[in-house]
Design a protein that fits this description.
Number of strands: 3
Helix content: 40-55%
Number of domains: 1
CATH class: Alpha Beta
């Protein structure tokens, strides 16, 4: 899942080398934390949140295959 999300985010932002994605797993829950630079936050979120909502939907669908609930958080880093 991390590879898929990372590939998508790298194609959205202007500074793909500054992306950091970490995963925290607790039982059947998974938290994906995406860290981007301040100037790329708007691009990652997208107009009316469309980009990040699409990423969240994709991550949830992948997690559902393994019976896991997935939460996607954006960090400024």
């Amino acid at each position: 899942m991390k590879d898929i999300v990372e590939a998508i985010v790298k194609n959205i932002v202007q500074q793909p080398d500054a992306i950091k994605i970490t995963i925290e797993e607790v039982e059947n829950r998974m938290t994906l934390k995406i860290s981007v630079v301040q100037t790329d936050l708007g691009r990652l979120i997208g107009k009316e949140g469309r980009n990040i909502n699409a990423i969240r939907t994709l991550a949830s669908a992948i997690g559902a295959k393994d019976n896991k609930r997935v939460k996607v958080e954006i960090l400024e880093g």
